[in-house]
Amino acid sequence: MRHSFKICSSLLMLSATVAAQQQTSTGAAAKPSSPVKSHSAAPTPSAPTNLPTEEQVNAFLQAQIGWEDQTTWKVVSIKPSKAAGLAEVNVQISGRQGQGGQKFFVSADGKHAVFGDVVPFGKHPFEETRLELEKKAKGPARGPANARVTIVEFSDLQCPHCKEANPTVEKLLAAVYTAQAEITAENADQKLTELADQAGVKGPDIAACSTQPETQSRVESSINLGKSVEVTATPTLFVNGRPVGVSENNYEVLKQLVDFAAKEK
């Protein structure tokens, strides 16, 4: 059995990661921070006609987590969910343990909130994602194009979990992971050029390629594709469209999923 692999990694994600790590929360009591203006997508026939307002979301969060000291939040978006009858709310929460995104769903009558993931349902629940990745994932690939099982990986060169989960990556990427603590948004070009030279690749050529508009466009396309298929952490693998978290300890689970996908009809 053969498998084809597509790897979508983004150097531009470095600056976003560094910026996120450097942000800290402020304030002595839980409260909404200066909010990013919420936006609501135009309702579709299957979408709820009445989305919760930002004021309603803030009131709900105040009741839920307002008691937590030094916790702040901002509403990022309020929009119709892919699931009919639910509104999707995305917020950014900051507290003593750091910051992170939180997504929840609100029923059309505004009386219930659901925390967790809304997953596709049906006989082939991952087919839509598989087809989208097949069409849009344009990263480096190995294996035959018509392989029965396709694995698509989203990773970040500055992500320590990506390093732990990828002990057998190519020599160039392995060098980058090893030196990831030394790479910052300010010195990324210089460091990656040095690492390319050390790996036997022409560093100046790599650096020149990374500054081309076409390269940036491809990176942005990978980031947008990740958002479209709801990648929220790296590394994330998709096995024939099925999202799978990956670590250094779940090889057997991944192998079972690949074998299962290969046998599916």
Unreliable stretches (pLDDT < 50, length at least 5) are 1-29, 35-48, 168-174
- Rounded mean pLDDT is 75
Overall shape: globular
In whole angstroms, how far apart are the ends? 15 Å
Q: Any idea what the CATH superfamily of the largest domain is called?
A: Glutaredoxin
Number of domains: 2
List the helices and strands in order.
Answer: EHEHEEEEHEEHHHHHEEH
CATH class (first level) name of the largest domain:
Alpha Beta
Widest β-sheet, arrangement of strands: 7-1-8-9-10
Structural class: alpha+beta
CATH architecture of the largest domain: 3-Layer(aba) Sandwich
Q: How many beta-strand runs? A: 10
Helix content: 25-40%
Count the DSSP helices. Answer: 9
CATH topology type of the largest domain:
Glutaredoxin
Chain-wise SSE layout:
Blueprint: E1 3-9, H1 13-22, E2 31-32, H2 54-65, E3 72-80, E4 86-95, E5 98-107, E6 113-115, H3 127-136, E7 141-142, E8 149-155, H4 160-165, H5 171-178, H6 188-198, H7 203-210, H8 213-228, E9 236-239, E10 242-245, H9 251-263
Parallel strand pairs: 1-8, 2-3
Antiparallel strand pairs: 1-7, 3-4, 4-5, 5-6, 8-9, 9-10
Helix pairs in contact: 6-7
